[in-house]
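Our collaborator T.R. sent over the components below with a one-line note: 'Predict the complex.' Nothing else. No constraints on interfaces, no templates requested, no preferences about which chain binds where. So this is a plain run: every listed entity goes in together, and whatever single assembly comes back becomes the starting point for the next discussion.
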Amino acid sequence: VGTELLLGQITDTNATFICRELAAIGVDVYFRTTLGDNLGRIVEAIRLAAARSDVVLLTGGLGPTPDDVTREAIAEATGRPLREDPASRRAIEEYFRKLEREPTAANFKQALIPEGGRAIPNGAGTAPGVFLEHEGTVIIALPGVPREMEQMMRRFVLPELRARRPEGLIIKSRVLRVIGLGESNVVKMAEEILARQTNPTIAPLAGRGEVLLRITAKCSSEQEADERIAETEAQLRQVLGEHIYGVDQATLEEDVVGRLIRAGKTIAVAESCTGGLIGNRITNVSGSSRCFPGGVVAYANEAKMALLGVDQDLLAKHGAVSAEVAAAMATGVRELFRADLGVSATGIAGPTGGTAEKPVGLVFIGLATAESVVTERHHFLRDRLDNKFRTSQAALALVRSYLLGLSG
Amino acid sequence: VGTELLLGQITDTNATFICRELAAIGVDVYFRTTLGDNLGRIVEAIRLAAARSDVVLLTGGLGPTPDDVTREAIAEATGRPLREDPASRRAIEEYFRKLEREPTAANFKQALIPEGGRAIPNGAGTAPGVFLEHEGTVIIALPGVPREMEQMMRRFVLPELRARRPEGLIIKSRVLRVIGLGESNVVKMAEEILARQTNPTIAPLAGRGEVLLRITAKCSSEQEADERIAETEAQLRQVLGEHIYGVDQATLEEDVVGRLIRAGKTIAVAESCTGGLIGNRITNVSGSSRCFPGGVVAYANEAKMALLGVDQDLLAKHGAVSAEVAAAMATGVRELFRADLGVSATGIAGPTGGTAEKPVGLVFIGLATAESVVTERHHFLRDRLDNKFRTSQAALALVRSYLLGLSG
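Returned assembly:
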């Protein structure tokens, strides 16, 4: 509840927190509704929610200002008058005494609880929450201040709901991150597994230059959920193999840096269109100094020639955006930093600079090693920033493929 | 629409964007509902929303996988069968042709539009949106991918809705972006203006290495709102002066690149702890090739010496994280690229690598010009990625200060 949410002035991170915590104790969230500070509409929403749910959880609108009408809305929706809760009144008096300030009448409005309900103590602010059982539905109201809401969720609401959970059904999930395959290819390769899957469910999601597979299990124990997820993960790994580079919050750069360090290899980067993004991503990984001496951002052709030793005739003949120049950049930076590997990217990020022959989004990446130089051609159809990101993603994927070949 | 939202796996930033944009054109948002990828519940929610609203806007669930059922839900809720839209089919074919990949049958599911509706072109992906007028309510569906959704909102949905808006109260807002001052300093400097302000309101917000001031006016016409905002902005500019570097979605790198180009100056970057982030930010700006020949990522000390000419004794005496080395890196990179300016950053991003004398978050930045070299010392107390970002922010701010001095 909060008009500022419906005006788009703030992002609803409370909803994320509450949903995640409820999922973790096995509560299915089917509907989430955001409302402004409007008595009539909150009353309407509470009645609708109570009719379709076992639990209605509200956050926001418990403050002392006339705007804040959530407790009044609960009273009206349930037909229960508001009564002052003596313990809450004392807590408010105590809070202001510590602050060395005088409470106003508006502050004591916060001690009102619908008849038959309990106050949920607020350890971090003045507004107690509301816990009410009404005609078979539990109605809970918490303040909108994230710190207060989170504390009250952890200390009071989650234990209460966990205790009422019928069979102790819990939901767990795990995200597999897939590189080097498009979403429809992943779905095709995993078709049979996806088709027969009911618990856990598997949801494919398009990432940025990668695909995510979310495995979600609903079980009566954490151990059972872990086992089922592990089983499904093993099946998916069977068909997708090394295309799965990590799970949950893992990043491709973490995987690549880890593989470089384990292989005892160093890498230098030569970046044109990515402008430093590949180096930035590598150095986002703590410990990357063990495999990354540095790189050159060769945005101008002069820099490609002077620093990376790219031949002027090569540039004239093929243009800066070409497989030949990508190869020369990778070779040049590898030598310059005396690294085991040299990786390069050159392309047209856009929105301008494209031609019929070399359109916006055309990119070449290169990888030089002691044995060989390989290049890849990509054509991305995104905006400038996304073309840059996908180029860096392709470059890291190319390095990863090479390292996989070493260990395989 | 998206099960991942109800599981709390992602935060709903699309809702924030959509609500903010709708508020800006005077559309009152009264209800926001989040649903999983469940056909029955989406159908139910569309019917309820259509009964109480002039416009129902959905985002998410238009992808090619069997999970994605938003278009089916619209068809069912309105009783209109899905028909293939030939233009959307051609756009999908064209998209895959450019990508040099084969579309699957699932991809063509995205060309289905409920009878009587129009496809909203998707300039950034394969899923067209849906625009349908049904029994007096406009029903709109957009993809959940933020970039695609945002582009389709700006190009299609907002103009359509603006054209249909009756007369009424509108809300407009404008964000001023402030660099080089902390939030409490900004509040102090603008104290009088903040105190007497009611319409527009002014809300100060802490950004990442910057402060945002959001001016929001509620008026009966767009012109009146624009005038009031302009008046308040002028007052704030009077006290904050050149600390305001841009408005709304402007970035510091855009401002700096624009100033470099107007001043006819070029800049080269020497990055240690930022690992390429400064170059990456500069090259996020289209046209940056006019002022940015390139840079060196000198992560290892050997690279600082070999490429940037940093003296070995200097490194031994002061350490890599020092004002002296920052100055030498800036000077070195300026000469290497024959640029007008050289900017550098060296520091300890963390979480490891700190000592009592040189703690995590200690950073030195340098700026070399034809006339002088200046350095700045910063101590950031964030995590690795945020320390890197704030270092790049400080470096760009230092360049900006110098360029302001030139023009001032």
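Summary for T.R.: Chain B touches chain A through 92 residues (CB under 8 Å).
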